[in-house]
Design brief:
210 residues, alpha/beta, UDP N-Acetylglucosamine Acyltransferase, domain 1, eight-stranded mixed beta sheet, six-stranded parallel beta sheet, 3 helices, globular
Length: 210
């Protein structure tokens, strides 16, 4: 009996796939994301034209985040500007330029300052932070990780035309120069000059583009 019901349901779903085609599904999803983007417009400090985000977006401290024209992001972007954590107050700032494209499952977090230039492309699972969760000191190590204070070694600056590959991590106090490419899964702990290709953990320059 159960097998018969499963077959009937399977046939019904197959039939409905002709009515609600994949093409129609994509159109409906696109329309939903346009509406979803409009709901978030007032959550940010500033937003340019052509703003498009995909559901879901995880936003905190939007009033400290300014975004330029032509911004797009795929599902599950986490973008956080923290004003206060564990009693410490901060003045965070995240600025994103024009024509920035962010793929799935990326995370941007600030207590200090993160600047992302124009025409920056981020692949999936990129992590950018201007702070650490706890200093590596004897006193800090006696605390549970969740109770350790946030601190920043300096702002993060990603200049124009930078491409961050899949799984890249950009740590505090780093500048990535314009036109640079950061290879997949690289961990950027020090600044990268313009026109460079960097890869590895920690990231090192493997090629300079003349």
């Amino acid at each position: 009996m159960k097998q018969s019901i499963k077959k009937i349901i399977a046939r019904m779903l197959y039939f409905f796939s002709y009515i609600f085609s994949r093409k129609l599904s994509v159109k409906l999803s696109s329309l939903y994301n346009q509406l979803y983007s409009m709901w978030f417009l007032r959550e940010f400090k500033a937003v340019g034209e052509g703003f498009l985000i995909s559901y879901p977006l995880y936003l905190h401290g939007g009033k400290h985040i300014a975004i330029g024209d032509g911004f797009s992001c795929q599902n599950r972007l986490h973008i956080h500007a923290f004003e206060e954590v564990l009693g410490d107050k901060f003045t965070p700032e995240i600025t994103i330029g024009n024509n920035v494209s962010i793929q799935h499952d990326c995370h941007i977090g600030a207590i200090n300052k993160i600047t992302i230039g124009n025409n920056v492309l981020m692949a999936s699972k990129v992590y950018i932070s201007d702070h650490f969760h706890g200093e590596i000191t004897k006193d800090a190590l006696f605390l549970p990780p969740a109770m350790r204070k946030l601190f920043s070694k300096g702002p993060v600056i990603i200049e124009d035309n930078v491409w961050l590959g899949e799984g890249v991590v950009v740590l505090p106090g780093v500048t990535i120069g314009e036109n640079s490419i950061i290879g997949a899964n690289a961990v950027v702990t020090k600044s990268i000059p313009r026109n460079s290709v960097a890869a590895g953990n920690p990231a090192r320059i493997v090629r300079e583009i003349e």
